[in-house]
Design brief:
Blueprint lengths: L1 E8 L4 H14 L3 E8 L7 E9 L14 E4 L19 E5 L16 E4 L1 H8 L6 H12 L4 H11 L3 H29 L1
Parallel strand pairs: 1-4, 4-5, 5-6
Antiparallel strand pairs: 1-3, 2-3
Helix pairs in contact: 1-3, 1-4, 2-3, 2-5, 3-4, 3-5, 4-5
């Protein structure tokens, strides 16, 4: 079973991100579940959402405590919440930030850590600072938990018309951004 925990702030679309990820997995013929966890329901308050994906029916219903991947929609949460709690040793981390892993001070994490300027990409394509779908495009590149095509289909099903097209373009840009980041270490070692 592949488990994802999304950390964000109210209004950034963490719950929608988990739901769209589950729909993308469902479109691939797999089982999936998504659900939120939040305290005070206000814009800007920390929010968590969870998604599980498996080839078999999923019977567990509690929050994801041992994620295979983390999506952090707001880098300020790195200093306010223990977002890395329970992360598997080889777990992947995707952070909405223009800064690098080193610049964020995350050198002690053992698994892959990637950053993508998701808010900037969202503003360019969707004209709103909502990084959720951008980060899903990045997550597809980081983990392969769903294909970018399934993700785009889920996005366009949820947001038909121009909004879906804009979000799809933003997700694809993040997907390409991460693919380039993944290739950089190989190029650096070859030099």
């Amino acid at each position: 079973m592949f488990q994802v925990r999304v950390h964000g702030r109210g209004g950034q679309g963490a719950v929608t991100a988990a739901e769209l990820l589950s729909v993308a997995a469902f479109l691939e013929g797999r089982y999936a579940q998504a659900f939120p966890s939040f305290g005070s329901e206000r814009t800007g308050a920390p929010v968590m959402a969870f998604c599980r994906i498996d080839d078999r029916p999923i019977r567990v219903r509690e929050p994801v405590t041992r994620p295979d991947a983390l999506v952090i929609q707001d880098a300020t949460l790195l200093h306010q919440v223990d977002v890395f709690e329970g992360l598997r040793a080889d777990g992947s981390v995707l952070i909405n930030s223009p800064s690098s892993r080193d610049e964020l001070g995350l050198t002690t994490l053992t698994g892959p850590v990637f950053t993508v300027p998701a808010t900037t990409i969202a503003l360019r394509h969707v004209r709103r600072p909502v990084p959720n779908i951008v980060l899903l495009g990045g997550l597809a590149a980081v983990t392969g938990c769903v294909t970018i095509d399934s993700l785009i289909a889920a996005v366009q099903e949820r947001f038909p018309g121009e909004l879906g097209t804009a979000n799809a373009a933003a997700a694809r840009e993040a997907y390409r951004h991460i693919r380039v980041q993944r290739e950089e270490p190989a190029h650096a070692q070859a030099d």
